[in-house]
Amino acid sequence: MFKFPVSKALMGIALGGVLITTAACAGDELKYGFGVKPTKEQVAGWDIDIRPDGKGLPAGSGGYEEGEELFQDLCAVCHGEFADGGGGRYPPLVGGDPEHLSQEASPGQPEKTIGSYWPYASTVFDYIKRAMPFGNAQSLTDDEVYAITNFLMVENDLHDEDQPMDAKALIAIKMPNEGGFFMDPRPDTKNPHCMKDCYKSVEIKSKATLGVTPTGEDALR
């Protein structure tokens, strides 16, 4: 699989229904005259990504047994009691062959579990923290996320269940399929991102019409 580099200048923050790119802010105003500049607190609430090298991992730790209990309470309903998908429509998180050579259904194709497919251990923490449990995302504490990550890593034979999981332990885990991901070599992915004076030639000639959402009595019709 290919890796796709992403420029931070192209990242955006959605606030109040307005998408604000970091490159569009100039001082305390937006160059285009609409939207609002996010506060430091708002940016901090959005900036929760964990990078492949572990940068962004918070303090805290979690044990295997606590992670197993949390998984059974919060995750097993979708992913199965043993994190094997439970035969349902949700993806299995354990199992598979890191060598991708023994899949009966699709020979030579990887089963996309954590242990046989994912390239970075930090992605497990990142995804759980931002998106799980389903329907109640970002409700877990950092210690709880570490605990569930511990459980999943142990079940994928990537961590010792007697050892707590924390930032240092997570960074030390080498995923079996990391080498299966590499930078996309196609020429159209190598176009340089505009990083300076990108918007001088942009002219906004019109804006979306506001007031199109029915209100009052009109909303009841």
For this entry, give a set of tags.
221 residues; alpha+beta; Cytochrome Bc1 Complex, Chain D, domain 2; two-stranded parallel ribbon; two-stranded antiparallel sheet; 7% strand
Please name the fourth-level CATH homologous superfamily of the largest domain: Cytochrome c-like domain
Helix percentage: 10-25%
Rg estimate, integer Å: 22 Å
Q: pLDDT below 50 for ≥5 consecutive residues: which ranges?
A: 7-23
Counting helices, strands and paired strands, the structural category is alpha+beta
How does the overall form come out from the CA principal axes?
Answer: globular
Overall mean pLDDT: 80
Structure annotation, total helices:
6
Number of strands: 6
Give a short account of the largest sheet.
Answer: 2 strands, parallel
Pfam family, one: Cytochrome_CBB3
Signal peptide: 1-26
Domain Cytochrome c: 62-156
Protein name: Cytochrome c domain-containing protein
Protein described:
It is a single chain. With 221 residues, the chain is of the alpha+beta class. It has two domains: 47 residues, no CATH class; 119 residues, Orthogonal Bundle (Cytochrome Bc1 Complex, Chain D, domain 2), CATH 1.10.760. Helix content is 24%, strand content 7%. It contains six helices and six strands. It has a two-stranded parallel sheet with strand order 1-6. Strands 2-3 form a two-stranded antiparallel ribbon. It has a two-stranded antiparallel ribbon with strand order 4-5. Strand 2 and strand 3 form a beta hairpin. The protein is globular. About 8% of the residues have low confidence.
